[in-house]
Amino acid sequence: MELIIGKNYEDMSKSAADIIAELIRLKPNCVLGLATGGTPIGTYKELIRMHIEEGLDFSGVKTFNLDEYLGIGLDLQKPYTQDQSYARFMHEELFKHLNIKKENIHIPDGLAKDPQKFCSHYEEEIKKAGGIDLQLLGIGGDGHWAFNEPGSSLYSRTRVQPLSKQTLEDNFESFYKKSGIKKEDMPHFAITMGVGTILESRHALMIANGKKKAEIISKALEGSISWEVTATAIQLHPGKTTVILDKDAASKLTWTAKE
Length: 259
Hints:
alpha/beta; 259 residues; 7 helices; 10 strands; Rossmann fold; 7-stranded parallel beta sheet
């Protein structure tokens, strides 16, 4: 595992974007696994800059997002109207700024009539694309990846997942509070890529920033592997793994890091 510590959030974001951009240049038809949330926004902004200023070409890239709330979500061929969907987040923060083809974008369908059937379909689509070359990951406050809540099997596949109390609290503050939606009206279930699916990516790239992530980063990277902290599964990843942190997020690690 490669550990890189940046001076700040901007430094962390640029390092992550550089790794993704290098893959795109080497393999223009690569398959990227993407994440939502506040942490990757800086990485996405840097990729957008590279596309606009340096000509980084996304026309052959395919993407698969980690998750979406059950009960919301949008057809990428139609207008984006639901502010709280992860589909809209990805459109606003990344896709609309790139030359990526709509048919190459894959996001779990929170409005699927048969969610279980859709989950199996999503797994098949990943396999059909040749698997994920690089999976970008954040980490939740309780150590979850995507919506793989504490207690999730480390062999889990794409599925419908009930959301934990902490996830509901965190997401209410991040996404729903400003919209005026009441906490009890938030989606309490999501479609999520499983831990086992994530571990099949050829390169796992996890990013985190801020002192509030320091304790859980220490558990994920240096603690015992446990389904109570699903991000500890990064220790089991059979391929290439890179963790990029800012100094605050790395403050409780004992490792000697690459600055």
